[in-house]
Amino acid sequence: MSAFQVVNIREVIYSTGDLKRAENFFVGYGGWNIVGRYKTDAKALQSWILAEDVSCDEILIQSDHYQHGQLRLVQFNNVQQDYIRSSQQPWDTGGIMDINLRVHEVSENFETLRQMGWHGLSDPMLQEMGPFKLYDILMRGYDDVIIAFTHRLQPPMELTAPINFPTHVYKTSLTVQNLAASKAFYVDQLACKVLTEYSVIKDKPQENMFGLPLNLADKVRCNAVILSIHGGTDVDFQIVEFEGITGKDFSRKAIPPNKGFLMYRVEVTGIEAHKEFVVANGVKLNTDIVEMIVEPYGKVNLYSIVSPGGAWFEFFEIIK
For 47-62, how does the pLDDT look when each residue is reduced to its tens digit (9 = 90+)? Predict the structure, then answer.
């Protein structure tokens, strides 16, 4: 039996310039429930290398009371901020490119979201990605973040929660410069499980979900590997490489307190053993284990790493 267990991705931390606006979007329109409102612990701010006079307000939210794939909305105070992925395109690398949310019907949400200030990279369209057939739309909104809103047709999936965003953050995407090297990091060093791999390219110039110019749609290939950090399929992430086009690199901007999807927070048990495992695999620590308060969990031990593409992962264990 292993000395540690990776429980799941409990949260994605979203650093926003307007906490109330983000709350209105996910809670007011999306129908998510609020777990609680908190002040970020000073030790967490110190671990992010922020000055003593910086503070941070938080709202932890979840879809239909599901405790994994949550969003922690945070707003930093008394500090200058940049955007993590300013004026981003999907093929730009560094940090978290998007989060995925399922919806009951893509077109109806598309029109409402445009009225709320979100903009599609394309109109909604039917996509085939590996074994999946789905209606999909990438939309850019507040803080220059991108959210993929999806309705899966095959394999069929029934969404039962009677809210506009009826599922948790079930997937996120990281656009990387070198897919093979990134896959080696996540599989060989972090022991992530490969769920599936796929490749997408259009057969002729045409509109596409990524917003590529039509004449490039049949020249740019999207290669992706879907990974699970805990071995399950309820919350996963994908690394994506756009072969045939070069974008900007935002890796150095994916740090607190900048605005956008900031980092993953992953629950583990046996955190000392987990840390020793990843270090033995050649992973460099970003911060060593620190005891702090992370509400609503209470006291936790937490350490962090940064992936080669700049994505932060915080691993924490609840102190019983």
Answer: 999 999 999 999 999 9
Give 64's Cβ-side CA count (13 Å radius). 13
Taking the domains of the chain in order of start, what are their residue ranges? 5-80+251-318
User: For the domain with range 5-80+251-318, which CATH number is right: 3.20.20.190, 1.10.10.200, 3.40.50.720, 3.10.180.10?
Assistant: 3.10.180.10
Cα angle 38, 44, 50 (rounded to 5 degrees) comes to 110
Q: How confident is the model at residue 187 (pLDDT cuts 50, 70, 90)?
A: very high
The pLDDT tens digits for 104-155 are: 999 889 999 999 999 999 999 888 777 778 889 999 999 999 999 999 888 8
Q: Encoding tokens for residue 102? A: 């399922």
The residue-averaged pLDDT of 74-102 equals: 98
Residue 272 has a pLDDT of 98
pLDDT (0 to 100) of residue 218 = 96
Amino acid, single-letter form, for residue 247: G
Which residue in 101, 151, 92 sits closest to 127, CA to CA? 151
Closest among 13, 4, 317, 319 to 191, alpha carbons compared: 4
**Can you give the pLDDT at residue 1?**
58
Check residue 233 and give its pLDDT: 94
Q: Can you give the pTM of this predicted structure? A: 0.96
Whole-angstrom distance, CA of residue 155 vs CA of residue 309? 31
Q: Is 252 left (phi over 0), alpha (psi -120 to 50) or beta?
A: alpha
CB 280 within 8 A of CB 231: no
